[in-house]
Amino acid sequence: MLQVGAQPVGNARIVFHHKDSHGPIVAAPPPAKVKPLLSAQAYGAEHPGAKSFIRLARHFLRNTLARKARRPCVPAGECIDQAPPDTHCHGALDCFNSFLTSRGQRMKAVDENINQHNAGWSFHNISESFDSHIQKSIPLYAHGHDLIRRYSDFFLKPDSIIYDIGCSTGQMLLKLAEQHPQKDALKLIGIDTVPDMIGKAINNAAHDSRISFINANVLDIELQPCDMVIANYTIQFMPPRIRQALVEKIYQTLNWGGAFFMFEKVRAPDGRFQDYANQVYIDFKIDNGFSEAEIINKSRSIKGVMEPFSTQGNIDLLRRAGFQDIMTIQKMICFEGFLAIK
Q1: pTM
Q2: For residues 302, 307, 309 and 315, what is the CA-based torsion angle, rounded to 10 degrees?
Q3: Nearest one of 175, 130, 171 to 152, comparing CA atoms
Q4: Is residue 244 a contact partner of residue 219, using CB atoms and an 8 Å limit?
Q5: Treating both helix axes as pointing N-terminal to C-terminal, what angle do 141-151 and 171-179 enclose, rounded to 10 degrees?
Q6: Rounded distance, CA 332 to CA 336, Å?
Q7: At 234, phi and psi to the nearest 5?
Q8: Which of 86, 165, 174, 187 has CB atoms 3.0–4.6 Å from 161's, for a disulfide?
Q9: How is 192-253 classified by DSSP, letter by letter?
Q10: 136: exposed, middle or buried (C-beta count within 10 Å: 0-12, 13-18, 19+)?
C-alpha cells in the first residue's frame, strides 16, 4: 500500500511521470527527487475508494499541472512544476493533499488505525483492527456470539454443515468449534467477499480442520443443505434490492428444523424513538472510547453503504422467504438478533 502524504489510499497507487524520464517517480513518502511532473497512471482500481481517488488525482494533474500554475503550494515546498531538478520537494504531496482536502475526499479516522471516506465505508484492509472496532461499536456484540454458541446445541448434529455469511475474521465459527469439540464431522464454512478478512480468518482457524472459508459473494455460489446459517450484522450492508433473494436462498438451503441467526442494526418504528436511539447510541460509543470526531466520521462513511431495516421490516423479509417461527433473542438500543427456524 502506498500513501499520498499521511493518508492511506488502500490499494490505489498514483504514479507520477517525469517528462524526461523513462520510468515513473512514485509520489509516496519519503519525498522523492522530482522534476516537473506531467501525467499519472492509476493502479489498484479494485479498491472501493480507489476510483474516486484516482479520478481526483487525474483531475488534479490535468487542471493544475497542465496549466502550469506558478504559485507556492505550502511554505515547506515549492509548487510541483517549479521544483528544481534533483531536489527534495514536499510540493507534490502537500499540493495534492490540499487538493483532496478542498474536495472533501481525504480519509477520516473512524477508530485507531481505521480511516474511511465519506459515503465510502469499506471492509478492505482493516482486518487487523476489525475485531476490536466492532466490539467497541456494537452493544452486546460478544454476548451475541456467545448466545448463538449456546443455541447451537439445539441444532447441530455430529455431521451438520454451518454457514457464516460475512464471517470477517472467523471469530463466530471458532466459538462454535469450541462448543462442539467432539463432533469431528462438522463442517463450519465462512463466506466473505473481502480477501483480507478471509486471509485473517484462515490464519485464526488453522488449528481446526473442520473450519474452512470461501472468498465469494454468497449469491454467486451453491450452498449445501445445512442445519444452521449465521449472518452477523451482514445483511444491513447488502443493497436492499438483493436482500430478499439472499434470505430466500438461505431458507431453501436449510434443512427442515434448521436455524437462521440474523443479527442486524434496526431502525426504530417512528422518528421520536429513532432520535432516542441515536442519542443513546452516541453515548454508548463515547463511553467505549470513541471521540466525537470519530463518531461523526463513521456516520458519514456509512451513508449509502449500510441501510438498516426496522424490526418489522426484517420480520417481513423472513416471512416472505418462508420462515414462520421467528423470535427476537437479543436486543439493545438499535441492534437486534433474530432466530428464525424452518
Answers
A1: 0.73
A2: -110
A3: 175
A4: no
A5: 40
A6: 7
A7: -110, -50
A8: 187
A9: ES-HHHHHHHHHHTTT-TTEEEEES-GGGSPPPPEEEEEEES-GGGS-HHHHHHHHHHHHHH
A10: middle
333 φ, ψ (degrees, to nearest 5): 55, -110
Q: Are 145 and 69 in contact (CB under 8 A)?
A: no
* CA-to-CA separations, 319 to 68, 240, 248, 315, 323, in angstroms, rounded: 62, 16, 10, 6, 5
Q: Let me know if 20 is exposed, middle or buried by CB neighbors in 10 A (0-12, 13-18, 19+).
A: exposed
The runs of H, that is alpha helices, within 103-168 are: 127-137, 141-151
- Tell me which H or E stretch contains 259: strand 254-267
Q: What gap in Å lies between CA 144 and CA 177, rounded to an integer?
A: 16
In terms of Cβ atoms closer than 10 Å to its own Cβ (0-12, 13-18, 19+), residue 250 is buried
> Do 177 and 208 touch, CB atoms closer than 8 A?
yes
Give the integer Cα–Cα distance in Å for 314 and 238: 13
Q: Which residue has cell 431502525? A: 267
Local confidence pLDDT in tens for the 342 residues of the chain: 333 333 344 444 444 444 444 444 344 333 333 333 333 333 344 444 454 555 555 555 555 544 444 343 433 333 333 433 333 344 555 565 555 555 445 689 999 889 999 999 999 999 999 999 999 999 999 999 999 999 999 999 999 999 999 999 999 999 999 999 999 999 999 999 999 999 999 999 999 999 999 999 999 999 999 999 999 999 999 999 999 999 999 999 999 999 999 999 999 999 999 999 999 999 999 999 999 999 999 999 999 999 999 999 999 999 999 999 999 999 999 999 999 999
For residue 30, is the peptide bond before it cis, meaning its omega torsion is within 30 degrees of 0?
yes
